[in-house]
Design goal:
- This protein has 2 domains: 1-30 and 176-241, Orthogonal Bundle (Helix Hairpins), CATH 1.10.287; 32-172, Orthogonal Bundle (Helix Hairpins).
- It is built from 5 helices and 4 strands, in the order ααααβββαβ.
- It has helices spanning 8-30, 34-85, 91-172, 177-190, 217-225; strands spanning 194-199, 206-208, 214-215, 238-240.
- The chain has a 4-stranded mixed sheet with strand order 3-2-1-4.
- A hairpin with a 5-residue loop joins strand 2 (206-208) and strand 3.
- The longest helix is centred in the middle third of the chain and has 82 residues, at 91-172.
- The chain is rod-shaped.
- It binds zinc ion.
- The site of zinc ion has 9 residues, from loops.
Length: 241
């Protein structure tokens, strides 16, 4: 696809651009797209609110179950106590029986009242919970729809990445390995390897577009000759016009 006769600098510029494009594509494959950010933030906030209220509801329900179990136990003990009544043979046993009966009866009343309190709290809570749940499910639905849209776009992005990688390999093969290495090092250090030169309005001076450092006329002459790659004196990026 690329001509062997392509100048070294042109190859380097194209390669630098392709690497940047590749980075962008890879980012869009892995990072949440900007158009999803607000749905995602809203989803997270609603999810936290929902989970909080859900755990409160579950805790109340478990307290209610415990109270019901305890009540069953107590009622069973109370029933057993009545069976024992027929075997009482003296006053001492009778007194113990009465004390025990009173104790269990009291605890039954206490547990019943606790159970009613919890039930009432659950009842009060119900509407609030239903509201929060409905709102969360609504937001979750929107978020999942967007997530699916993003997922659906990924195979296309992956294909684009493949195409870019092919072009990159082709261009790399046109350059001497030391230049490829130099370009990659510059990218690792500075994000980009090349910088365009721009001129002042009166055309008197030229500058590096990356760091705005002055580019001397002799440097521009050398770039025009195209014999070597020239870097900015200040930011070290490879300059081009
Ligand atoms: Zn510079």
């Amino acid at each position: 696809m690329y001509e062997k006769s392509m100048g070294e600098l042109d190859v380097v510029i194209e390669l630098d651009n392709l690497y940047s494009e590749l980075d962008k594509k890879q980012k869009s494959l892995n990072d949440l797209p900007s158009w999803m950010q607000s749905a995602y933030q809203e989803y997270l906030a609603k999810k936290e609110e929902y989970e909080h209220i859900k755990s409160k509801k579950e805790s109340l329900e478990s307290q209610l179950r415990e109270a019901e179990l305890r009540l069953n136990e107590l009622e069973e003990s109370y029933g057993n106590l009545n069976e024992r009544a027929s075997k009482i043979s003296n006053m001492k046993q009778y007194e113990a029986y009465v004390r025990e009966k009173k104790r269990i009866k009291e605890e039954i009343e206490k547990t019943k009242s606790l159970k009613n309190d919890i039930s009432a709290e659950i009842e009060l809570f119900k509407e609030n919970f239903a509201e929060v749940e409905a709102s969360f499910l609504d937001v979750e639905k929107t978020y999942k729809k967007e997530l699916a849209k993003w997922e659906a776009s990924k195979p296309e992005i992956a294909r684009e990445i493949e195409t870019i990688e092919k072009k990159i390999n082709e261009l790399r093969s046109l350059l001497p390995p030391n230049i490829v290495r130099r370009l990659e090092l510059l990218r690792e250090k500075f994000g980009r390897a090349t910088a365009k030169i721009y001129s002042s309005e009166d055309n008197q001076f030229s500058y590096c577009s990356n760091c705005n450092y002055v580019v001397r006329p002799v440097v521009i002459q050398r770039i025009k000759l195209g014999i070597e790659l020239i870097e900015c004196d200040n930011c070290k990026r490879i300059l081009y016009q």
